[in-house]
Fold:
Amino acid sequence: MKNKLLTTTLFLALAVPFTGVSASTDPEADRQALVKYFMDAHGSTKFEGHSLKIEDFRFGSNIFDPDKMSQFKGSEEFPAYLDHLEAGEKLWKKPFANGKTYARCPGFNDTKTLRAKYPLFDDGRGEVVNLDQAINECRTANDEKAYAFGGKDKDMTKILAYLANESRGQKINVTINSPGALEAYKLGEMVFHTRRGQLNQSCSNCHVSSAGRRIRSELLSPIVGHTTHFPSYRSSANDLVSLQQRYVGCLESVRGYAFPANGKELKALEFYESFMSNGLEIDGPAMRP
Structure:
């Protein structure tokens, strides 16, 4: 088993370098290689009475610890984020000063599928657009002030949580079908695999090669499934935490430079991670340590 895991680890290191942008022009081949890596490494793990399946990875690090999974399921019966969901729904339905609501913005009419549409690459604009940005653009189009990104405005996070909850059961389906989208994917891949900070760590050091292991008391989660459950209610923060907020926190935890919240680099990272979670169900918001 150790030899098999070592061989797979070496394969992934060659297929997806830990520094710089991969030379690959086939993101789907990258995703399948990553799925194979995790299944080779963890496929024999027993989870909820069956061998671990890639679909289970939406539960994050809970898949590696039965006690932790049991605690998670218990917390979801009366989750601490219920008040935040109610507040998010009220904010979503509250009319702007002009009398319109978010639902009047293009593509915003169906809350049951809205979260699953993002992130996407807008070829006309040449950039990744995530749901955070789309919400703010809806606001400014209606002469409302934009929310601050990166968890600095809790109203934004509450709306994101409400929309995630509305889209539960929908599957992530990020498409890459243009040169611009491919470049955004590569940028996100580079951000994920590049070592940085005083601790000289990359996202992949924790969430690929060390997934399922512990750093102090924290059980490390795999990249596959990362974007399915945000915003998350994190007990360590005693609050909802958005995905972009978590990115900033992770960069700071390795004592590195934090890219601007919801800037080009972190939107590309969300695009890359979301693509790697294609086919998994959205189940945010969710309780996390």
Q: What stands out?
A: Residues 1-289 form a domain with the Cytochrome Bc1 Complex; Chain D, domain 2 fold (CATH 1.10.760.10). The chain has one domain: 1-289. Confidence is low (pLDDT under 50) at residues 1-23. Residues 27-42 form the longest helix (16 residues).
